[in-house]
Structure formats: structure tokens, C-alpha cells
Amino acid sequence: MATGHTDMRKGFDGLAALVQDHLSRDPFSGQAFVFRGRQGHLIKVLWWDGQGLCLFAKRLEKGRFVWPATAGAAAALTPAQLAMLLEGIDWRTPLRTDRPRIAG
User: Fold this and answer.
1) Is the dihedral of CA 69, 70, 74, 77 positive or negative?
2) End-to-end Cα, the chain, rounded Å
3) Which pLDDT score, from 0 to 100, does residue 72 have?
4) Confidence of residue 88 (pLDDT cuts 50, 70, 90)
5) For labelling alongside 44, which of 31, 33, 83, 95 has CA 20 to 30 A away?
6) What is the mean pLDDT of residues 66-78?
């Protein structure tokens, strides 16, 4: 995840260049790289599937995607956190259910 905001006019090549130059990562590694626009309601996900780059976009009709405030860096997400992010859920502090203490 690229922290801060990104120019959402960028496509495959522009986002791959951001991954390579600003995040110092390999855009062809198979990792998913997530970018958010300034207003917070649009994200793009760049991913190499082994044959080519895939670019996915999602726009929330209501609300904003929760994003770290730190600019110019990257944050790592687990697959579960990415799923929550894509659903518009605050992935930083998910509410977990308590486990039962006694069976039966």
C-alpha cells in the first residue's frame, strides 16, 4: 500500500513506475500494490499475475477508504486487511469476537 495520495490519472505504466521509483519495489513481483486518490473515495490496485499487469479500481459511493497518514512510504497489509479495505471497513482496528472459554 502506498501511503499518502496518488494521482488517479495514472495507469499501468505510471503506477508501475511509482512502485519502482518511490517504493523501491518490483512491480512484477506478484505483490498487489494499492493506491488511493486525494479525496479518498477511489483506490487502484496494481498486480502482476505472471502474464501481465492487472489494474483494478474501486470507487465508494459513500464514505472514504481508511488510509495511513504517513506520506512517501509503504505499508504492508495482510490478505484479510486488504479484503476489509476493499469493503470500506477500517482495517486498522477490526473488532474481533471473543473466543469461548468453556466448551459446553
Assistant:
1) negative
2) 43
3) 62
4) confident
5) 95
6) 75
Give 100's DSSP letter: P
Cα of 74 vs its chain's centroid, Å:
10
At 59, the pLDDT band (50, 70, 90 cuts) reads very high
Nearest to 44, CA basis, from 54, 17, 92: 54
CB atoms within 10 A of CB 16: 19
**pLDDT given at position 22:** 87
Closest C-alpha among 21, 1, 29 to residue 92: 1
Name, in order, each residue with C-beta under 8 angstroms of 65's C-beta and a sequence gap of 6 or more: 36, 40, 41, 43, 85, 88
Are 7 and 1 in contact, with CB atoms under 8 Å apart?
no
Instruction: Report d(CA 75, CA 52) in Å as an integer.
Output: 24
For residue 48, pLDDT over 90 is answered with: yes
| CA atoms within 13 A of residue 18's CA, in its CB half-sphere | 25
